[in-house]
């Protein structure tokens, strides 16, 4: 999932050094190094207690020794953090159970399929859209673990003759030169190729509020033609990106000086006109003047959405690296954006996870090790990194400048017996720590409500585990149960972090049209158009990256923050009406209402605002100060290490699948470290790689020396 709109004028991401793909991991490490003393001290205390390794045999023993053992880990939530936690544990031979309150897995990865959808009918195979996450940067070093997971799953599925469950990636068309933009009552929409020096009616001579000096073409000495206002974000990010390129420590130190600022506060209280450097013009004001409100408003409108700049300045700058990672790292001259999506819908991805988790044997070390080589997480057998995963459709194949990976094939092996570990319609309503469980190692008691889909009756189930990994969005810890809290007796810092972590609302809608007028007018038949943008509440129109051979198709509307809240306050049909008006605004030459297939929920339309399983926001997006004050706290295990909180909130990759994977990896690593399961840690690293886990041995040793 991602919240950034396409803006052809903002080139900040394209200026990033393409060798900095691991900046998010470095940022996570740096935060713990500089603001994680409480985290490190608590981790050390938990592992030092005499009962810490009481369950070592349960975790470190062989799978044959534990074939009939009671599950050691209870996992709450069947989103990607819960699924990935389970897949790692399964690969290590550690038993667990996953409880999901709904009737599907995936959490905020959720595909809407029209009831008319038919994968085998060309006119119905494109009738779907992504309610949640819809794309993955193809070459981002930080995000390669997402593709690694699909390859690892596919190895297991092939071994078990479950080829219909395989996860394949197809191209996601993120942008194009013919995607449309229209703002401020412009007489007509324009295309992206004509937008770089267009004022979009923001200038005062067009009825806007910007002095013309900001939106009047300038030609540099080098011959570059630009609008000064479109250079602001480049200059805002430039000093921080340059510092990070020189040294992670230097760059993060500089960046965190402004951690208490929102993006809006930085723009209007720190950045001066003089900071524009060569783009400054005296007609803007004095060099010491701050950036005008109206300029900040323009930048928020075009680059995010109403209210989005209220989030952390650090969050916004660091997010730039996610987009820089969308480019080809093997060819620095390649300016294209490369993104991919799961063929036939992202929902196939978590469904494949569940299928594998419900097998006796899952991902093998050879599966994961080979997959790491296939995508360039580690060098191949020839000692060089390459990228040639076996699960790309033809349109998603990498450009010729990308070297082929030299990776061994996973072993074929034998099919596995089934073993249920994922329990659907099982809602966890309470989790309590009991220090006396498991011979005083301590453990967690959880209360589960099992709902019968046929009768609707609720059955109460009580479970006990030495360890629990809870992966729910923070808002979902309000369970709504009578007299019973989800958690009791959490530490003050953890309870505060769960309560305060900022989540961003999002809105999506899917509207079916009888004809694909956008493809014909865009002259991109057979290819995706990217994303259209406007200042109307619907904000973005995401064109499909598939289904162009059909007569009709689905347009997706996507907005965030205040825009999403206002759309979400309407009734379902009113939301659709607003979306139709936004599409008609972008296509005034088309009778959009005639082309519309009609309001018919789940057949021709679907709207989504938040979600009852999410609990108040679509994805984490920190407010000022929360990286240094809440991030280490969210990572700290509770109750002597018996409870770990995971989910994309507990990562630096907010709004992306890999954030959930990182947090799950860290939670499992905490359990292994406490048990002293050194061999299992090595096996995990060989199978899954080394994700953004802040629990670094070198730092632990450093802390131990300091405490000695």
Description:
The chain has 708 residues and is an alpha+beta fold. 32% of the residues lie in helices and 14% in strands. The strands form 7 sheets. A 7-stranded mixed sheet has the order 8-7-19-20-21-18-22. The two termini are 45 Å apart. The model is unreliable at 1-21 and 696-708 (pLDDT under 50). Pfam families: Amino_oxidase.
Layout of helices and strands:
Layout: H1 23-35, H2 37-48, H3 56-60, E1 73-76, H4 80-91, E2 96-99, E3 111-113, E4 128-130, E5 136-137, H5 144-159, E6 169-172, E7 180-182, E8 190-191, E9 218-219, E10 225-226, H6 232-246, H7 248-256, H8 263-269, H9 293-303, H10 313-324, E11 339-342, H11 348-357, H12 365-375, E12 422-423, E13 426-434, H13 437-440, E14 443-451, E15 458-465, E16 467-470, H14 492-500, E17 503-504, E18 506-513, H15 517-522, E19 531-534, E20 540-542, E21 553-560, H16 561-568, H17 572-586, H18 592-595, E22 605-609, E23 619-620, H19 626-635, E24 643-645, H20 657-675, H21 678-688, H22 697-707
Parallel strand pairs: 1-2, 1-16, 2-12, 7-19, 16-24
Antiparallel strand pairs: 3-4, 5-11, 6-11, 7-8, 9-10, 13-14, 14-15, 17-23, 18-21, 18-22, 19-20, 20-21
**How many H/I helices?**
22
Side by side, the strands of the main sheet go: 8-7-19-20-21-18-22
| Largest β sheet strand count, sense and barrel closure | 7 strands, mixed
Proportion of residues in helical segments:
25-40%
| The level-1 CATH class of the largest domain | Alpha Beta
Structural domains: how many: 4
Q: What is the CATH topology assignment of the largest domain?
A: FAD/NAD(P)-binding domain
Mean pLDDT: 89
CATH superfamily of the largest domain: FAD/NAD(P)-binding domain
- Shape from CA axes? globular
Would you count the extended β strands for me?
24
Task: Supply Rg.
Answer: 25 Å
Low-confidence parts lasting 5 or more residues at pLDDT below 50?
1-21, 696-708
